[in-house]
């Protein structure tokens, strides 16, 4: 799979009198991993929801491989290869693992000329996805409510990456997970990167980004504080930027 260059230019968004995003720009080279960090209400999730088509910006542009695009809905973003894994995973607990993966994209076949769900094909394809990703669940026929948090995360990742994703956005992917599950998520992100899929991670866990990321962008109060290459910074500098809203490598900071 060839990589995809993602850009956001001058994205602004207000909700009434509240400015959620102020002239935010992002540049994600093809096949790379970016950590998006900042305190609560920094605008991280809002920015990613704009990229995923869940929120429409007031101003600004999104470009994929240099061409402007606009997404009226998450479905439109998904058709362009952009998938977002929300912090709550957005799974349906009562449905099986395979049914969750194919929710809204069900495989069908005909019985006596009547289209019906092809459950066997979806189960087989779901197993193939988990094998390809190096992820495990007890069985794809189990309801999601029977799975652990780490296993539910695996289902969400399989769903996001199983349909030619070019960019996967993960909102706090390692929150509330134990050490083995965190390592599995890191391995999966690394595998996605090697296959040419770009990844953006919203996270408060800087150690995850330093372990597997290429780039980091710090936000505060809806604005960009600064950008860093992971190999060219350290945790103390990033924490300072998050707390103060100032980039120590340039004058000025986030406007009040």
Sum up the structure in keywords:
single chain, 256 residues, alpha/beta, Rossmann fold, six-stranded mixed β-sheet, four-stranded antiparallel β-sheet, AAA+_ATPase, ABC_carbohydrate_import_ATPase, ATP binding, ATP-binding
Structure description:
31% of the residues lie in helices and 27% in strands. It has eight helices and twelve strands. The strands form three sheets. A six-stranded mixed beta sheet has the order 6-9-10-3-11-12, with helices on both faces. β1 and β2 form a beta hairpin.
Give the overall average pLDDT. Answer: 91
Which second-level CATH architecture of one domain applies?
Answer: 3-Layer(aba) Sandwich
Unreliable runs, pLDDT <50, ≥5 residues?
none
Number of strands: 12
The outline comes out as globular
Strands of the biggest beta sheet: in what spatial order? 6-9-10-3-11-12
Please trace the helix and strand order, writing H or E for each element. EEEHEEHEHEEHHEHEHEEH
Proportion in helices: 25-40%
Radius of gyration: 19 Å
Assigned CATH superfamily of one domain: P-loop containing nucleotide triphosphate hydrolases
Number of DSSP helical runs: 8
| Structural category | alpha/beta
Cα(first) to Cα(last) distance is 43 Å
Task: Assess the beta-strand content as a share of residues.
Answer: 25-35%
Predict the CATH topology of one domain: Rossmann fold
| CATH C-level of one domain | Alpha Beta
Q: Strand count, sense and closure of the main sheet? A: 6 strands, mixed
């Amino acid at each position: 799979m060839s990589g995809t260059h993602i850009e956001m230019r001058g994205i602004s968004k207000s909700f009434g009198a509240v400015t959620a995003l102020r002239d935010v720009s992002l540049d994600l080279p093809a096949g790379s991993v970016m950590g998006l960090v900042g305190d609560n209400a920094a605008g991280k999730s809002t920015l990613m929801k704009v990229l995923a088509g869940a929120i429409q910006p007031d101003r600004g542009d999104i470009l994929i491989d240099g061409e402007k695009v606009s997404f009226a809905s998450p479905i439109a973003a998904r058709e362009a290869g952009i998938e977002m894994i929300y912090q709550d995973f957005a799974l349906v607990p009562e449905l099986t693992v395979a049914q969750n993966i194919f929710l809204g994209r069900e495989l069908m076949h005909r019985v006596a000329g009547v289209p019906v769900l092809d459950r066997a094909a979806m189960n087989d394809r779901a197993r193939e996805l988990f094998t390809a990703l190096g992820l495990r669940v007890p069985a794809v026929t189990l309801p999601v409510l029977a799975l652990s948090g780490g296993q539910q995360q695996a289902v969400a990742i399989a769903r996001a990456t199983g349909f030619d994703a070019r960019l996967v956005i993960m909102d706090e992917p390692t929150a509330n997970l134990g050490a083995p599950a965190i390592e599995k998520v890191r391995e999966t992100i690394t595998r996605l990167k090697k296959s040419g899929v770009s990844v953006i991670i919203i996270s408060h866990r800087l150690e995850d980004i330093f372990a597997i990321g290429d780039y980091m962008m710090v936000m505060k109060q809806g604005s960009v504080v600064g950008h860093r290459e992971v190999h060219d910074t350290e945790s103390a500098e990033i924490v300072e930027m998050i707390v103060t809203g100032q980039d120590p490598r340039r004058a000025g900071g986030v406007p009040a």
